[in-house]
Write a structure and sequence with these properties.
Serine Threonine Protein Phosphatase 5, Tetratricopeptide repeat; mainly alpha; TPR-like_helical_dom_sf; TPR repeat; 65% helix; endoplasmic reticulum; 1% strand
Length: 758
């Protein structure tokens, strides 16, 4: 498995490395920074990275965590493990039209393991793993940066040498404390980026191991090249960006191992120079290794394509408005503006937001927009760096700048909209890997400034200040990610024009029962985005609960007009129409909802309620039965079936349904209560009493439970216990009229018995 170079005149690789070490300038000579032994440098990086994000360990599940974890059936034990390979990140089938095609089975597998060991959805374990992953990645960055900044060289014993210990420590610290990483670490869904980065770096380090000379004198190992390809595949199975490491390995091979001068190579290709071999293209097996990388990458992409299918992901205009612009010019201008904003987040990560869509960044529609300046600044800097990377006479400078630009740009390409439409405008999580390139360029810039500066200590103190500010910013941002309320409110000042921010603040308030405040934010979301159907739906629901039915109907009607297949809005419109006693329209709305979402148990439940109001008992029972078939734990549908059968005198059937329901949901006290009522009427007093007592034990403050148990004892002739439970029921709910009447009847009966006994 070792590729042997059949070139007798090839110099000994180790001697060449040592000569290179003597000839090339060392970046550390110009860097005024701390020099620590490798072990201590890694310990410092691990501790600082832990310090930045430690306060997120006990945070809640926030934002996308709900869909990716709590509502993802792939985490539960009853879902076969094999399904993970055919579902997307959110648990939907990859073949579904609604799938986002985000294929990350290994990330979902780690969530499943978390869930298994925690025994449920307890976020602490999920957060701790994320923090550990970031600390591990930051420690690995010390080794990665030592190679990227100092070159790849080995000792006589085959140990890799760190020729840039100070620079690699500084770059690793910059990476560890960058605030833009907070979303990946403090948001559990960010684990996809963390796992991808981990195997991305391991793939790179594995590729570097391929060039460690062995005792036989072979120049590189095919085994380690293949290991690198496999690790790249694993990185891609964690997140799509992982595949880009294969391209970066090829760039590293060409620049560092073969020391190819790209400008010289381009010239020779243009002029069809036959001395390409002298340019380094064929030396040291470069073409063979690149062929291995290309074949590996093509195989990985083909397998992923076969599993994922050929259909593109389904995104909407609100997710990525620029990609829906009719004009190619508008699309190009806005894509470049997004790139400049991503670059700004790396340079100045002060304004961070959980979501940058829905009007947060208005489209640039003409060249007169002042934001064009940001594009010009970005390309001015990039072109300047590219020119230096290609044309500089200093080979050391060319290598570092090219590697820095490579690690900045190549991992970002899958999120660039160049190859396919992505489902976001800006996403801080996708900058996790490109920030490696930023740290290389920052460290190199710092070394150039240190070389020119007379007072190097002041410069070092300034960089220390930047690191300290970033640590504090990370800690503050991590605390904001601990709860949805803090996270959503933190976005109001960053993206006040983002309708989704206002929507999420409103939703959070509604979940906490603060409907008045929620209405305000939902109205603002609809004002900012008049086509925001989800905001209309939620606002309509609140207005429905507040009995403001006519406005609720207007909002929900508009929502289904804008999005005719919005099943939830159709169902809620049906509920409002039912409340307005427009039964035929309500029935039509329910059936329209079911047409667009065939497996919709809640809609069948509401349809059953409509039929019950219309005394269409058979239809009601059928609708509720459909609800329980689709969702066996649908307690309300089971209860309504039992109560309807009870009220219509079908006690035997009601009992059968009640027993069936309790077999499926044995700990539901409301089902125990309903079945106990039926058994009492069937004079099965002992069994009825047992169920009543069990229901009361589960929910001791339910006045109706005590009241109906008292009725049972009353019928049964156990008058003292009946009196006791009537009194408990009245204490819990003094206004209950039926209980009060029954209690008065019992008291009169007890008085009569006392008189007879006297």
């Amino acid at each position: 498995q070792i590729f042997n170079q059949h070139n007798a005149e090839a110099p000994n690789l180790e001697q060449a490395f040592h000569r290179m070490a003597q000839m090339e300038p060392n970046l550390d000579h110009d860097v005024s920074w701390f020099l620590l032994p490798s072990y201590w440098a890694k310990m410092v990086v691990a501790f600082i990275s832990f310090l930045c994000f430690a306060n997120s360990y006990d945070g809640d599940f926030v934002f996308d965590d709900s869909e990716a974890i709590i509502n993802n059936k792939d985490l539960r034990a009853e879902t076969p493990l094999g399904d993970l390979w055919y579902h997307d990140f959110w648990g939907s089938k990859l073949s579904s039209n609604t799938s986002h095609k985000s294929y990350r089975p290994l990330t979902v597998l780690t969530f499943r393991i978390n869930y298994l060991f925690a025994g449920g959805f307890y976020p602490v374990g999920f957060h701790v793993i994320n923090i550990i992953l970031h600390c591990t990645i930051s420690v690995l960055m010390v080794d990665v940066f030592s190679i990227l900044l100092g070159g790849l060289q080995f000792s006589n014993k085959g140990r890799r040498l760190n020729l840039a210990p100070k620079s690699s420590l500084l770059a690793a610290l910059l990476f560890a404390v960058h605030p833009v990483h907070t979303e990946c670490v403090a948001g559990i869904v960010g684990r996809a980026d963390l796992l991808c980065a981990l195997f991305f770096l391991l793939s790179f380090l594995g590729y570097c191991k391929a060039f460690r000379e062995n005792k036989e004198g072979h120049t590189f190992s095919v085994f380690w090249v293949l290991v690198s390809v496999i690790l790249g595949a694993i990185a891609m199975l964690c997140k799509e960006q992982g595949i880009t490491i294969l391209g970066l390995n090829a760039v590293f091979d060409a620049l560092v191992i073969n020391k190819i001068n790209l400008l010289e190579l381009i010239r020779k290709l243009l002029y069809k120079d036959k001395s390409l071999e002298n340019a380094g293209l064929l030396r040291k097996g470069l073409l063979f290794r690149i062929t291995l990388l290309m074949c590996g990458g093509a195989t990985i992409l083909y397998i992923r394509w076969r599993i994922m299918g050929t259909g593109p992901p389904a995104f909407t205009e609100v997710d990525n408005p620029a990609s829906f612009a009719d004009s190619l010019f508008v699309r190009a201008i806005n894509y470049n503006y997004y790139y400049s904003l991503n670059a700004w987040l790396l340079l100045c990560p002060w304004w961070l937001c959980f979501d940058w869509s829905m009007g947060c960044i208005p489209l640039i529609k003409s060249v007169s927009d002042w934001r064009i300046i940001a594009l010009a600044a970005l390309w001015f800097c990039l072109i300047g760096l590219i020119c230096q990377a290609l044309c500089s006479e200093d080979s050391h400078k060319r290598r570092i700048l090219t590697l820095g630009l490579g690690f900045l740009i190549i991992p970002f390409l899958p999120a660039s909209n160049l190859f396919f439409r992505v489902g976001f405008v800006i996403a801080e999580r996708v900058i996790y890997l490109p920030s490696i390139g930023y740290c290389i360029l920052f460290t190199y810039g710092f070394s150039l400034l240190s070389k020119q500066a007379k007072k190097k200590k002041i410069l070092a103190v300034a960089v220390l200040g930047i690191l300290l500010i970033n640590v504090m910013r990370c800690a503050l941002r991590s605390s904001q990610w601990r709860s949805e309320e803090q996270l959503f409110r933190s976005a109001l000042s960053v993206c006040p024009l983002n309708a989704k921010v206002h929507y999420n603040v409103g939703k959070n308030l509604a979940d906490k029962g603060n409907q008045s405040a929620a209405i305000k934010y939902y109205r603002e979301a609809v004002r900012l985005n008049p086509k925001y159907v989800h905001a209309m739906n939620n606002l309509g629901n609140i207005l429905k609960e507040r009995n403001e039915l006519h406005e609720a109907e207007e909002l929900l009607s508009l929502a289904v007009q804008i999005q005719p297949d919005f099943a939830a809005a159709w169902m809620n419109l049906g509920i409002v129409q039912n409340s307005l006693r427009r039964f035929e329209e309500a029935e039509q709305s329910y059936w329209t909802a079911i047409k667009h979402r065939k497996k919709y148990p809640d809609c069948y439940y509401n349809l059953g309620r409509l039929y019950a109001d219309l005394n269409r008992h058979i239809d009601a029972l059928n609708a509720w039965r459909n609800a329980t078939v689709l969702k066996p734990e649908h307690t309300l549908a089971w209860n309504n079936m039992i109560i309807l059968l009870d009220n219509t005198g079908n006690l035997a059937q009601a009992e059968a349904v009640g027993r069936e329901a309790l077999a499926l949901i044995p700990n539901d006290h409301s089902l125990m209560f309903s079945l106990a009522n039926v058994l009492g009427k069937s004079q099965k007093y002992k069994e009825s009493e047992a169920l009543f007592l069990k229901a009361i034990k589960a929910n001791p403050n339910a006045a109706s439970y005590h009241g109906n148990l008292a009725v049972l004892y009353h019928r049964w002739g156990n008058l003292d216990l009946a009196k006791k439970h009537y009194e408990v029921s009245l204490k819990l709910d003094p206004t209950a009229p039926g209980t009060k009447e029954n209690y008065n009847l019992l008291r009169r009966k007890l008085e009569q018995l006392q008189k007879k006994g006297g």
